[in-house]
Structure formats: C-alpha cells, structure tokens
Amino acid sequence: MQGAAYKTVLCQNSGAFVVNKSRFIGSAAPVSSEEEALAFLRKVRALNKDASHNCYAYIIGQNAGIQRYSDDGEPSGTAGLPIIELIKARAVVDVCVVVTRYFGGVLLGAGGLIRAYAQGAKTALDAAKVITMHRSRRYLFECDYAFAGRLDHWLRDQPVRLNEKAFGAAVSYDVHIKAMDAPAFCAGLGELSAGRCEALLVDEGYQGWEEE
After folding, report:
1. Which helix (DSSP H) or strand (DSSP E) does residue 24 occupy?
2. What is the 3-state secondary structure (H, E, C) of 77-125?
3. CATH match for 133-210 among 3.60.20.30, 3.90.226.10, 3.30.70.240, 3.30.2130.10
4. Which of 24, 60, 63, 182 is the 20 to 30 Å CA partner of 145?
5. 187: Cβ contacts below 8 Å, ≥ 6 apart
6. Residue 192 — φ and ψ, nearest 5°?
7. Which CATH number fits domain 6-128: 3.30.450.20, 3.40.190.10, 3.30.230.30, 3.10.20.30?
8. Which helix (H) or strand (E) covers residue 137, if one does?
9. Is pLDDT at 211 greater than 50 in this prediction?
10. For 68-122, how does the pLDDT look when each residue is reduced to its tens digit (9 = 90+)?
11. Of 142, 116, 8, 2, whose CA–CA distance to 52 is shortest?
12. Cα–Cα distance between 49 and 53 in angstroms, integer?
C-alpha cells in the first residue's frame, strides 16, 4: 500500500538572529504527538529561563489534525499566529516550533513582531531541515565482481539511496527507493543484469527525502 507523501523536519535544531536589539532564537523538532511537542517546549523553556517570551506553534498528524499556538505574553496575534502560518505555508506537519525572544529594549510594534516571529519560524525550519516523507522500500541484492562496475554506473542515475555496499563472495547492495519508483527500478535491474540480479524486498515504510 502506497501512502501519501508529507513533509516534516529531519532533526531538532535552532538558529538565532537579532532585530532592533532583541535576540530571537528559532527552534524546531520533529514530534509525533502533543505530549512530545509539549516536552520539546518545556526543554526550550528550560534552556532559555531568562527569555522574555517563548512563543510556539505545533501541527501534528499527516492531516494536520492537531494545531496549537501561543503568543506567550506578546500582543495577541503577533507571535504564535505568524509562526503557525509559516509552518502551514511550508506544508510541514509533525513539528513543533518555538521562537524565543530576549527583549532588547526597543519596541518593534505589531508589524515588526509579526515579521520577526515569522522569520523565527523560518529560521527554525531551515535549521531543522524540511524533508519529504515518502512511502519507501528497502531492497537487498548482489552481483559478481565482474558486473559491479557496470551496476554502480547505472545506480548513479537511479533515484535510490545506497545504505551499504559490502564485499564478500559477491558484491552486496542495500538500498532504499520510493515506493512509486520501485517497479521501474526492479524491472531495470533485471533487464540490465539479464536476470542475474534480483532485488529482495526486506522492508517498507516511510523514509525522509530532502526537499526537491
């Protein structure tokens, strides 16, 4: 069964910038439940105990079924809302974004706050690296040493991720490929090798692929 692709982030990460003496830190993490999102929020708050605000938003579920955001003391609509709108604009789910502000003494105004918190969300997502989760298949196959050079050349032009290449009695390959590309790949491998290489399906599930 091939499920729909969706976007999330690869890892927990953060980035910082300054706007009119206020320091902003945008942090993001992949989460699969509201509990994980709140745990990440607590972690960021603990790391930034002296911050003026830790504003956040999270969207959970491939259908974006759970959505929450907070201005954390900033004027209503100037922090949490621009954060979640930026996440929606990037079509990212299963993510929690926290934008921390250390007030620098200069008021930014409503428009300035909205732009700064949107920038914080963008900084967070860029740091955490947006990826597309595709239904993917993992295959194992092997070939003799005489054929390996030709196979390697062919694989470089295929939409596969090489997980491991091992050398034993034969050359063994461990690859991931998007499920939608798998039939053509397996057919091509069989044709190239005249039936000598057969891809063995060992696993299927979602895998992250960098944004195209």
Report:
1. strand 22-30
2. CCCHHHHHHHHHHCCECCEEEEEEEECCCCCCHHHHHHHHHHHHHHHHH
3. 3.30.70.240
4. 182
5. none
6. -60, -40
7. 3.30.230.30
8. strand 130-143
9. yes
10. 999 999 999 999 999 999 999 999 999 999 999 999 999 999 999 999 999 999 9
11. 116
12. 9
Give the H or E element holding residue 56.
strand 53-60
Pairing of strands 130-143, 6-9: antiparallel
Angle at 114 between CA 111 and CA 119, to 5 degrees: 125
- Kindly report, as residue ranges, where domains of CATH 3.30.70.240 are found in the chain: 133-210
In 3-state terms the chain splits into helix, strand, coil percentages (rounded to 5) of 35, 40, 30
Domain with CATH 3.30.230.30 in the chain: 6-128
pTM: 0.83
pLDDT, tens digit, 9 for 90 and up, residues 162-179: 999 999 999 999 999 999
Which tokens is 39 given?
A: 């745990």
